[in-house]
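Quick one - inputs below.
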Amino acid sequence: MTGPLSGRAESAAPLRARQPGSRILGTGHYLPSNVVTNRDLEKVMDTSDEWISSRTGITQRHIAAPDEASSDMATKAAQRALEAAGIAATDLDLIIVGTISPDMPMPSTAMFVQRNLGARKDCPGFDLSAACAGFIYGLSIADAYVRSGIYKHVLVVGVELLSRIVNWEDRTSCVLFGDGAGAVVLGPAKNDGRGVLSTHIYADGSMIESLCIPGGGSRTPFSAEVLAKKQHLVHMVGTEVFKYAVKGLSASVLTALEANNMAPGDIDWLIPHQANVRILDGVQHRTGIPKERIFINIADTANTSSASVPIALDQAVRAGKIQPGQALVFCALGGGIAWGSALVRW
Ligand code: ACO
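Output:
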């Protein structure tokens, strides 16, 4: 089998000459202080801690305060990443925000982040819609800009306020998600072998209906009917997404390894999208990366979509788990279906 789900050489082929490249200068994350446990959910819907934790590995999620918007969370994560990078907001050349829960349909959440951070008023920015793969897509774009020399410092944020866009009457999906933000600042690599070594992004539009927000856009504009049918909220066919996720995440990790002539044993940390521990069991099985090298925080955060990888990355960095020179693989998959991976020498 070849193609993006195969993890074979053909999909690794587009890798181009990569010098001097980009590196991650600093990371940050933000999780709202309000924690809602599975036991809390038991009191308001027909579910159980046992069902949620055994099916997904989730025991709690962080939920934003009523007056918090996505850009507020993104700003806090970005401030921490800038501080860790030792970069002033005014030194940013581009702001990319991966999100499916923007403050407003227009303008971009990136503009709110620019204003909140006090970045230059001419600093470009945009939102990127690739659902749970939003951070990987953003990293891929940021890497290309830095690698090409067009921009020096790029802020990449993944942020989601999913508690406002999930259907709280659909127990099969609402229990899976949480709110949060993660960010990295990218800058030029130093030609010492460290930095972003590869990125691979993919999408399969034949799977749109398996995970989407069907109403409220130009196809089915917002209306009383959309509201009544809750079409403006996340719609998911969980089992279809589950199967695709195991295949897609595993293939993208194997592609990253092959593109860099590396074996599973060469990887120090896999920092995956946190959707379901059973999905990660499948990824472990298919890729051969041992479970102790997979960073998993889903019990605490649930699925924060595009924020999931950068939150996990920052937690691992701040916990001292990630050391200079280590090889990291990031991977994520979600609505679209869009997915991808990145391999970073820390
Ligand atoms: N509490 C209690 N029971 C529930 C709940 C709940 N919250 N939700 C569903 N059930 C019931 C169902 O009604 C069903 O009951 P039935 O057998 O009487 O009909 C039963 O549990 C089994 O339902 P399934 O959907 O078959 O459960 P499954 O084991 O497949 O797990 C899950 C469902 C967890 C959603 C799984 O399919 C999954 O994780 N899919 C991936 C989805 C995902 O992560 N999406 C996020 C975005 S994409 C991504 O991030 C990868």
